[in-house]
Amino acid sequence: xxxxxxxxxxxxxxxxxxxxxxxxxxxWKALQAEVHPDRFASEGAAAQRVAMQWAMRVNEGYQRxxxxxxxxxxxxxxxxxxxxxxxxxxMPPAFLMQQMAWREALDDAITEAALEALDDEAxxxxxxxxxxxxxxLDDNHDAPAAAAQVRALMFIQRFRADIDQRxxxxxx
Amino acid sequence: MALLQISEPGASPDPHQRRxxxxxxxxxxxxxxAAVRHGVAECLPDAQGRVILPSAVRYLPEGRRQIGAEALAxxxxxxxxxxxxxxxxxxxxxxxxxxxxxxxxxxxxxPGMLAIATRDGVKSPVEVSAEILATLRxxxxxxxxxxxxxxxxxxxxxxxxxxxxxxxxxxxxAGLKVLRLINEPTAAAIAYGLDNASEGxxxxxxxxxxxxxxxxxRLTRGVFEVVATGGDAALGGDDFDxxxxxxxxxxxxxxxxxxxxxxxxxxxxxxxxxxxxxSTELVASLDAGELRVTVTRAQFEALAxxxxxxxxxxxxxxxxxxxxxSADVQxxxxxxxxxxxxxxxxxxxxxxxxxxxxxxxxxxxxxxxAAIQANQLAGNxxxxxxxxxxxxxxxxxxxxxxxxxxxxxxxxxTIPVAKAQDFTTFKDGQTALAVHVVQGERELVSECRSLxxxxxxxIPPMAAGAARIRVSFQVDADGLLSVSAEELTSGVQxxxxxxxxxxxxxxxxxxxxKDGFASADADMAxxxxxxxxxxxxxxxxxxxxxxxxxxxxxxxxxxxxxxxRLSALAAMHxxxxxxxxxxxxxxxxxEAFAAERMNRSIARALTGRDVSQL
Lengths: 172, 614
Known about the structure:
The structure holds two protein chains of two kinds.
Chain A: H1 7-11, H2 21-35, H3 45-66, H4 68-78, H5 93-108, H6 112-139, H7 143-171
Chain B: E1 21-26, E2 30-37, E3 40-43, E4 53-54, E5 56-59, E6 65-67, H1 69-73, E7 82-84, E8 106-109, E9 114-118, E10 121-123, H2 125-144, E11 150-155, H3 161-173, E12 178-183, H4 184-196, E13 200-207, E14 212-220, E15 223-232, H5 237-249, H6 257-274, E16 279-286, E17 289-296, H7 297-321, E18 331-335, H8 342-352, H9 365-377, E19 387-389, E20 396-400, E21 404-409, E22 417-423, E23 433-439, E24 449-456, E25 469-475, E26 481-487, H10 506-514, H11 524-550, H12 556-571, H13 576-589, H14 591-606
Parallel strand pairs in B: 1-11, 11-12, 13-18, 15-19
Antiparallel strand pairs in B: 1-2, 2-3, 2-4, 5-6, 5-7, 8-9, 9-10, 13-14, 14-15, 16-17, 20-21, 20-23, 22-25, 23-24, 25-26
């Protein structure tokens, strides 16, 4: 177990997109139970510093592993097909059309019900795209295709965040 | 868990049977200290049997001061020199204070943080808080007739970095070793969790004197995970008092500080009475005569409604952040004296669709939870099985072109956390870069809180966009931030670490200590020596325990070198500087060993254990 191990090695998990969330949570808590600085509060500054490094590393891995999208992006990178969202905009063509339709629908939605219906639709698309990413990574071993799908998923997430903001504005 | 050390009976390396560690709730209106005694956490009373210390400090002539109930009693007569609710000013500038003209204080802007002019000179909120902390420290030391090992101090979950740093500075000034700052709702959950063995998703609704916090915690087998947190750092019982006072005055304006204070005190008394009765009288003696108004509970509840609605909006936002529905929450813990108001209990029960939990004293629950955690951090708990996994309350980011915020660490990230982001230069030949660190959720820098600014200089001239400047954020387990920046491509090292600009510098702290706070009647040198020896003892103990547990990791010669250092340290007595230097050297010498031990403990944790048992 080293600080430089990749997230999957650190958490003792197989390097696959398919993961059980409860297992990840359990591993995270078990790791933190061993390395958290509070475990060494009565020891010297050196132990505190090392413990903090470890706790940060464990939290970093946890943030990536527990989020299916971040996990997929990380796997793409490990397999030599980094997502590079900022300078690569290639994604499935049909998806672009859908994006535009959604954006128009969001502009038109003014009630809470309309916004929630739109969010449900986006959530379904997100789930389908995540399943597709998992097939591409775990069954087809096609990291470049998975990376394109991850980029599409990033759009869906941003879209859902926008819906969320609109809902928040309605509630406030 | 690994690293539990067991020594033979009678052969304990610990000179004391147990270390005295306390939990302190440093509140806006009142403060408490609690400790685990005979296996039970309880609030410690003062000589008169009172557990609550009003957070009030009155500065008297000739450098004397009154702290607590005596100060509070004099509040209306000597408002300018009687400082209350200073928690609201921690880490704040004058511009941050809403309606300063309504308060009886003479504010002064100092670099970083406001200060208040009193007859005993200008006082920083940090110094005032330190007076309160020192009073509680002496109370605990008198109770146990022993020095304190350390303290866990609670802060509102919503406190930003500047406010946390100010709290830690106050503790240092009061001569307290801070084992950990923990969030008040987390402390409340610890108190409830252990008493009631609760498991599942819980909300903690904490409406204190000056702050409102709402937190969602997941409790599972001794792990307290803060899932999300939110609130309002400037909303509390004081606002209810003010709403009632304004209503009672019915448009009359008051000029004297005495009157302003008197009507607030009267409003608070009426508010508290209305928790038990349907109608009461608000009575205040003002310069222009007596103010006497009858107020019913229904009238007060109507005034309270907008304030309660603000808290409920924050609750909904936290639920949305955590992506859970109110029905998923298995219980809501009520904390803070303001939750005694029936109208508050009713509104929160309605939102969650079930009765809120009120079986622990809402004033004491935070201090008690902090004491339980302090006891564990000091190594006293037999089966130290609580683990706090806290989150940062507000996002941290940097100013980029056009006054926009680039978020580096998102709010609700579990701490400790470190994250680095790479930036580049904007102009050809640019040799310096301004780094502006901000905290908050808004897109514009102007709407976020500015935490620190610094410049990275000495970047070798390059074409625009060629430099790679890595800005690293690090938030430690207390939620305190440090930021550094470094240019990577040239190999030239240029890095800087900052403390938040709202905190006090180490020099300011040293000056205040020298000015004689807390050590007014103690000899500085003696105190320094005592502290050095406590630290040496602590360090020696920790190293011996570590060697006993994992000494086999060290080659023979390194082991002997460490043993020699330990013996040398134990033999040192009179020279504080020499002891400090030896402690530091020992810490450095054991760094690699500490890392090895950590590796072993991780390997142990994950080897041969079924995941379902973790």
